[in-house]
């Protein structure tokens, strides 16, 4: 049979001719698909889907090149479409995972910040009265040690000593958040030192 006769036979629903084409081309087409997909199951699925579509749409089947070229080109196109689809799915999955990770980190940080903020306030309130006053003047009002000393009519050395004790106490109270939060706290608190 010529290729035109084979195509005409398939268009008319000749199962014997169709099965013959399937048997002759199935394995080479699967190997061709494997070059693109590197997955035997996916390759077979692409080839099976091609033959299924040919049979389903046999009456509209139009082949302008050789049957073999048509089959190989169709498999190649299907593989490329599948690869593109898988890449889009993977990109979307990665994008979603990134968004979930960012959201989880933000929630976690927010919870930790709220918890830390509460612990800092609680720890400050547990300081002895004069130490608490010095700490708040430094932290809340942004006064330098010299200014605090003048305001409270005490020496700068006393302010330094009280702040040192306050910082040690804060470190102990916030040990759960070590080392990152203590480092952050020290950086923040050092901003208010005598400068």
Task: Provide structural commentary.
The model has no long low-confidence stretch (mean pLDDT 84). This protein is rod-shaped. It contains eight helices and no strands. It folds into two domains: 89 residues, RNA polymerase sigma factor, region 2, helix turn helix motif (Rna Polymerase Sigma Factor, Chain: A, Orthogonal Bundle); 65 residues, Arc Repressor Mutant, subunit A (Orthogonal Bundle). α2 packs antiparallel against α3, α2 packs across α4 and α6 packs across α7. It is an all-alpha fold and 195 residues long.
Which strand-content bin applies to the residues?
A: under 5%
CATH C-level class of the largest domain: Mainly Alpha
Low-pLDDT parts are none
Question: What count of helical segments does DSSP give?
Answer: 8
Radius of gyration: 38 Å
CATH third-tier fold name of the largest domain? Rna Polymerase Sigma Factor, Chain: A
- Distance linking N and C termini: 97 Å
Total strands: the figure is 0
Return the domain count: 2
Give the name of the CATH architecture of the largest domain: Orthogonal Bundle
Give the overall pLDDT as a whole number. Answer: 84
Q: CATH homologous superfamily name of the largest domain?
A: RNA polymerase sigma factor, region 2, helix turn helix motif
Query: What is the element string, with H for helices and E for strands?
Result: HHHHHHHH
Helix content: over 70%
What's the shape?
A: rod-shaped
Q: Describe the biggest sheet?
A: none
What structural class is derived from the secondary structure elements? mainly alpha
């Amino acid at each position: 049979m010529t290729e035109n006769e084979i195509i005409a036979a398939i268009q008319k629903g000749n199962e014997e001719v169709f099965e013959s084409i399937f048997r002759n081309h199935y394995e080479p087409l699967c190997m061709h698909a494997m070059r693109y997909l590197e997955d035997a199951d996916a390759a077979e699925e692409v080839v099976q889907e091609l033959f299924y579509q040919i049979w389903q749409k046999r009456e509209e089947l139009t082949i302008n090149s050789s049957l073999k070229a048509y089959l190989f080109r169709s498999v190649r196109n299907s593989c490329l479409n599948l690869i593109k689809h898988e890449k889009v799915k993977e990109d979307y999955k990665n994008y979603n995972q990134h968004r979930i990770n960012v959201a989880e980190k933000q929630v976690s940080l927010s919870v930790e910040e709220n918890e830390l903020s509460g612990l800092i306030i609680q720890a400050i309130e547990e300081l002895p009265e004069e130490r608490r006053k010095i700490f708040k003047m430094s932290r809340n009002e942004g006064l330098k040690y010299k200014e605090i000393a003048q305001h409270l009519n005490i020496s700068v050395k006393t302010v330094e000593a009280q702040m040192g004790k306050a910082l040690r106490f804060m470190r102990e109270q916030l040990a759960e958040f070590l080392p990152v939060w203590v480092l952050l706290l020290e950086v923040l608190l050092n901003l208010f030192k005598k400068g």
